[in-house]
Description:
The complex is a heterodimer. By secondary structure, chain A is mainly beta. Chain A has one helix spanning about 80-90, and strands at about 1-5, 10-20, 20-25, 30-40, 40-45, 50-60, 60-65, 70-80, 95-100, 105-110, 115-120, 125-130, 130-135, 140-145, 155, 160-165. In chain A, the strands form three sheets. An eight-stranded antiparallel β-barrel of chain A has the order 1-2-3-4-5-6-7-8. In chain A, strands 9-16-14-11 form a four-stranded antiparallel β-sheet, with no helix packed on it. Chain A has a four-stranded antiparallel β-sheet with strand order 13-12-10-15, with no helix packed on it. The model of chain A has no long low-confidence stretch (mean pLDDT about 85). Chain B is α+β, with helices and mostly antiparallel strands. Chain B is built from 17 helices and 23 strands. In chain B, the strands form six sheets. In chain B, strands 9, 10, 11, 12, 13, 14, 15, 20 and 22 form a nine-stranded antiparallel β-sheet that branches.
Amino acid sequence: MYYVKIGNKEKKIEILEQSGTVFDVELDGKLYRVDFVKAENSYSLIVDGKSYEIDCNIAGNRYDIWIRGNYFPISVLTEAQKRLQLSKKKKGTGGPQIVETEMPGKIVSVKKNKGDTVKKGETVIVLEAMKMQNEILSPKDGTIEEIYVKDAQIVEASEKLFKVK
Amino acid sequence: MKIKKILIANRSEIAIRIARACREMGIKTVAVYSEIDRNSLHVRYMDEAYFIGASPASESYLRIDKIIKLAKKSGADAIHPGYGFLAENPEFVEECDKNGIIFIGPSRDSMYLLGNKTRARARMKAAGVPIVAGTIEPIKDYELLENEAEKIGYPIMLKAAAGGGGKGIRMVKSQAELKSAFDIATSEAKAAFGDDAVYIEKAIINPRHVEVQIARDNYGNVLWFPERECSIQRRHQKVLEESPSVAIDDNLRKRIGEAAAKAAEAAGYNSVGTVEFLLDEERNFYFLEVNTRLQVEHPVTEMVTGIDLVKLQIEIADNKAIELNQDDIKIQAHAIECRIYAEDPEKNFMPSPGKVVGLRTPGGIGVRNDNGVYEGAIIPLFYDPIIGKLITWGSDREQAIERMKRALSEYLIKGIKTTISFHQKVLNDKDFVEGNISTGFVNRLLETKAEPDRFYYDIAAISAAKYPIRDFELEKSCNENGAALMS
């Protein structure tokens, strides 16, 4: 059993049988017979006679899937990974949180200093990319424990910006 | 033709669009590139290419001195500025003039006049082109502004006198909001244009944004083209344009077209350009501004009329007289353009620079794809997020829409987020299909959370089964091997 997460929807998936390129797949209790043929980063899927061209990018258990111009970001978890995630969630967001960049850009200004108290939703950093200024907000009430960047610095995607406790 | 070689002082899709016209006309092209753009498509496409500086635009594509120097070094007779960067900078035109290089665009004086919104308003009013009620003189003083706003009546639009591109525009609903709006608008205007003067216009409720492409040569011959409807905007910037507009009939088309031609004459304009109008709910139109450049959405007009506007622009710059008559300009199709931005429509159109790891472009009948990327190209964070434009046309609006939906379903860009999925939402929206649109459309659409075809969710989930399949196959082969060992 695996858990497939698409946006905030979760579905259970299981492979039941294989014969050549044809798989019997159970998705949330519903059975599909899927002919699954792969080329570089794209699949041809024939599901019960219906044909789909699927494009994907795979990084670990993260999948980006495109079907006829529709885009789906997906993550797939095994049962063990799912349990681990649940126990993490129980611990809650009480601990320190590190905020990372969602996109590359240039730091235009750092509004807070280490040790400052912040409210949830308050601007901590302003990041510029493609002529647009984006305010990076504090995800919670707390204290800035660390700022990892400085003015005019160029940052990549998923780079640490600040830690709030 | 005097012009034999053109330096294109721009990048990405528009640089390639211009170079395409040049190649058809037998004109040599010179590309310039910043550090990060060494491997960009425009460099690969043109005949010559020269480095102009570090990646930030202020050190490369905005450096008048370096561009002029390279034009001379490469022996270019003319410079095409594209849109953005130096396209509407009269100082750049002046430098071209001084150095004997043809600037492909209007004269310095015409550009200077139209570049300032209050100057342009005053000139249009004098010429009898209808303008939105409001102030004519630029305002720097808050108290004066407050008095004028009171006279005109709220709601008002507060705008930067030197503005353009949607920057420095605020709607103010009451006097209580005026002071903070004034402070923000003046500081934005100062930062963006180096001039903090503002002016106000009476706000028009549910306006449509309609614009008229014009062309005028050095001999006073003028043409106007069927209007483009550009009401689908986010952050006061267009995302989807079409032509003709469903709101305009032949009679109004002629009146608004002739007003645009009159505006071009009043400004002594001598290139291709665009006169923007607001259309109110009673179908009254008001002059907004003139864009003194080739516009992003020019292909819409090209597909409707069959006329190559870039070629026309180059010929006018080459001092040729326009050979076409107004009667030659006919509506031959309905066309739509979707701007493909490297932005995440799910996250308030946040920029999404990065590497294009996969690209498949649409084809088939009635589809034009003007884009500036290739598979493996980098979308830098330094410049405008536009990466391409998809244009479709058909015998009527319905066919153009159906084609656009089909073309978008074929369009695949991997590695970055784009506005492709957003456009699909627009084209499936009932109000859009019925032509019931105004500049508030995008905000309304974003509030209604449309989801992709529900059935695709299951298919997407199955597509992600590679992991489970690999484990399944592994387990199966272990079992088979185990069984083989035992026997």
